[in-house]
Specification:
By secondary structure, the protein is mostly helical. The protein has 13 helices and no strands.
Length: 217
């Protein structure tokens, strides 16, 4: 979910992606949740892993943003697995959780943006996703979507991270933007992101999804 990280980096640098773009709590917790999902220390909780990353980057007192649900929803093979994963104390109590899971599931399965927006308005109200989703639904490409998200009121990093994650799933990312973003985050973060992307690609392959559905019969 490099799109979340790019949105975060752009949000604190006036919409630019260059050496003055620095990771905030959005990137730190996004990488932390990726690390928890694909890490080797399976006995640790999400709360423990997130806190370790927060402490490492001196943001231990900042609240975990809702953007952490996006990498989980992208990693999960379906909505039910998403719900089962998000029972950890650190990531279970936000009222927006199911809305994020539904939203990502729809984007991953190619549901048109207009239909996603309609279904979202019918099923969820007054969440932190309202304005970012509207921006995403009106967008045509990744860069423009994130640029518009930064203009929204509220937490710019969270808004841009949400729209960046959705736009990556919907439009994809160019190699040049991906490489630029990778050059702006610490090496230890980069290793986690790349490993997460490889693992998620395997889990969401047509073959893996077909096997999951066969087992569910």
């Amino acid at each position: 979910m490099t799109g979340i990280i790019i949105g975060d980096l752009m949000s604190n640098n006036k919409g630019k992606l260059d050496k003055n773009s620095t990771p905030t709590i959005v990137t730190i917790t996004t990488v932390a949740i990726m690390d928890w999902l694909i890490g080797e220390e399976k006995n640790k909780t999400a709360k423990e892993v997130i806190q370790e990353w927060k402490t490492k980057y001196n943001v231990e007192n900042e609240q975990t943003p809702i953007t952490v649900y996006i990498p989980i929803a992208n990693y999960a093979q379906d909505f039910m697995e998403f719900i089962s994963i998000t029972t950890d104390e650190e990531i279970s109590n936000n009222k927006t959780k199911e809305a994020v899971g539904d939203l990502i599931d729809g984007v991953k399965n190619g549901v048109p943006k207009s239909k996603i927006l309609k279904l979202f308005k019918e099923g969820y109200r007054d969440t932190e996703l309202d304005d970012p989703l509207r921006v995403f639904s009106e967008s045509r490409e990744f860069w423009g979507a994130v640029t518009e998200a930064i203009k929204l009121k509220g937490n710019k990093a969270v808004n841009a991270g949400i729209v960046g994650g959705l736009s990556e799933l919907n439009y994809g990312l160019s190699d040049s933007i991906r490489k630029k973003a990778f050059s702006l985050i610490p090496e230890e973060m980069l290793k986690v992101v790349k490993k997460y992307e490889m693992e998620t690609k395997k889990r969401n392959s047509k073959e893996a999804i077909a096997l999951l559905r066969f087992k569910q019969r």
